[in-house]
Amino acid sequence: MHDLLICNGTVVTPAGVGKFDVFIDEGKITSLSSTTGNKAEASKTIDASGRIVIPGGIEPHAHIGGPRQPERSGALPVSKAALYGGTTTVIDFATQIPGHDLFHAVKEAEDRWEGNAFTNYAYHPIITHGADLDSIRQIPELVKNGIASFKIFTTSIRPPSPQMQNNHIDFGRLGEIMSQIEESGAILLVHSEDDEMVHYNYDRLKTTDEWDWWNMHRIHTNQSEDLSFRRVTRLAERTNCPIYFVHVSAKEGVNEIKRCRSLGLPIYGETLHNYICFTSDNYREDNGMKFHTYPSLKGDSDVDSLWAGLLDGTISTLATDLVSTTWEEKIKYKTVADVTGGHNGIETRVGIAYTEGVVNRNMSLERFVDITSTNAARLLGMYPQKGVLAPGSDADITIIDPQIDKMLSMDDLHLENYSIWEGWHIKGWPTTTVLGGETVVENGILMTDKPSGKFVERCISSEVTKSPAY
Ligand SMILES: [Zn+2]
Predict the structure, then answer these.
(1) Is 169:153 a contact under the CB 8 Å cutoff?
(2) Which of 7, 294, 326, 444 could form a disulfide with 341 if both were Cys (CB 3.0 to 4.6 A apart)?
(3) Are residues 153 and 175 in the same domain?
(4) How far apart are the two ends of the chain, measured CA to CA in Å?
(5) How many CB atoms lie within 10 A of CB 176?
(6) Does 468 reside within a domain?
(7) 325 Cα to the center of ligand 1, angstroms
(8) Do 256 and 115 lie in a common domain?
(9) Which of 68, 340, 89, 67 lies closest to 78, judged by CA?
(10) Cα–ligand 1 centroid distance for 274 (angstroms)
């Protein structure tokens, strides 16, 4: 007698897509076998006829609210919405604050998540402005504790303000950080923009009185992404440090990643689902700042390039850059210097990727699974525990109903009081989610009130850190 059987579905596995029955015991996948129609014994059976069975989504980029960011939603509502949207693991950030070390940052993140996790979770420590050498040298010890990825910013993003912590890392420290990352087998996430250019653009647009939010792409420009990516990859090349560029937004970023990968460097890129569906023209709409996440939306040719990268393997992952706030908070600030960043799209990521990738652009189901789950697991050190439907892997599973064809409405969603996806035409949507063998969402209904997600210890394969494997 098995704990759970998911039968008759179209299952996406490393060996291809086929009709398999998935057997689950004690939270893990025990076997996959060709669907025979014979009734097997299981305490619970989900008939997935006509539906697509995939590994649970992995959100690699989410900023969860805590006591220091009370305007942002916390782990409990965000992870609950993630489950509805077919995401079973969320990676948050652990931001170093001035005067404290990286262990303190991790402790803060732990406090946010423990007892509040409807999904599994992990965090990337962010090494911040002026980090001392002692903090930077904590990287190997954190890696030994199962924290395999770290993040830095090459820009302070906005003009200095009392509300905004400056996370900008100078290139001197960056070289030191890269050496530590390389030696400990970790990966470095980089928010990469040219700080000087961004700040010059702020000065220039202030002078010309073009301070409204819809000018954001004229500050966080293609040129700035181009220059900064090249500077970072040059340093990475010298230190053999694996790099994961977060939220690639411009064709120049895609091109630089492609160039480095062709040279055999372990350089990876992530983009966001709002970056592949909207452009800077959307800023001009009423309350068009709702579309904004930093750096910025760009133009049509950038969207085309990001899609090409997702389809051909240059871009590895699709993320949200979650900062979940209310509508009032999202539209509160209206200038290029203070627009609220982030996107509350953790629930829409997998479904939008299915509609826009698989249905509208002929993306294979295997590639769709790579960008929404498997590659995040591989690059960030959770594979094959997560990100794959195979014997021995955790039973984190999402079932998509490809028959759903409708305009998305707020009644379909469970986080905050707005979504930039309201009214979007969806064809196919996640309806059932299994977390650690437990059916937590069934046909769109939440089946649990217990936040039973677990911290995921991570360790990255040298295949990922030595060459552009995925
Ligand atoms: Zn972010």
Answers:
(1) yes
(2) 294
(3) yes
(4) 38
(5) 17
(6) no
(7) 14
(8) yes
(9) 89
(10) 13
Query: What pLDDT is recorded for position 145?
Result: 97
- The pLDDT confidence band at residue 36, using thresholds 50, 70 and 90, is confident
Nearest residue to 365 via CA among 377, 381, 353, 376: 353
342 CA from centroid of ligand 1 (Å): 7
Question: What is the span of the domain harbouring residue 432?
Answer: 2-54+389-446
CA–CA distance, 59 with 318 (Å, rounded to integer): 8
Residue 258 CA to ligand 1 center (angstroms) comes to 22
Give the Å distance between the CA of 93 and the centre of ligand 1.
Answer: 8
d(CA 87, CA 118): 10
Could you tell me which residues come within 8 angstroms of residue 466 by beta carbon, excluding any fewer than 6 positions away? 242, 266
Please state whether the peptide bond connecting residue 295 to the residue before it is cis, i.e. omega within 30 degrees of 0.
yes
Check the CA dihedral 72-295-180-165 and report its sign. negative
What is the 63 CA–ligand 1 centroid distance (Å)? 6
Phi–psi pair at 12, nearest 5 degrees: -95, 110
Q: In this structure, are 45 and 61 located in the same domain?
A: no
- pLDDT band at residue 131 using 50, 70 and 90 as cut-offs: very high
Whether 285 and 431 map to the same domain: the answer is no
Q: Into how many domains does the chain fold?
A: 2
The residue whose two tokens read 């939306």 is 297
In this structure, the answer to whether residues 11 and 126 fall within a common structural domain is: no
Residue 253 pLDDT > 80, yes or no?
Answer: yes
Residue 323 in tokens: 């900062």
Model confidence at 39: pLDDT above 80: no
Q: What is the mean pLDDT of residues 166-183?
A: 97
d(CA 113, CA 110): 5
**Is residue 389 scored above 90 in pLDDT?**
yes
- Is residue 38 pLDDT above 70, yes or no? no
Q: Give 432 Cα–ligand 1 centroid separation in angstroms.
A: 28
CATH number, domain containing residue 297 = 3.20.20.140
Q: Are residues 323 and 411 in the same domain?
A: no
pLDDT tens, 297-342? 999 999 999 999 999 999 999 999 999 999 999 999 999 999 999 9
Distance CA 28, CA 420 (A): 36
Q: Which residue has the tokens 């479904």?
A: 351
Residue 181 has pLDDT above 70, yes or no: yes
CATH number, position 21? 2.30.40.10
Q: Tell me what pLDDT residue 165 has.
A: 87
Q: What is the CA(246)–ligand 1 centre distance, in A?
A: 7
Residue 433 lies in a domain: yes
Ligand 1 mean position, distance from CA 259 (Å)? 24
Interval between CA 23 and ligand 1 midpoint (Å): 37
pLDDT at 163: 79
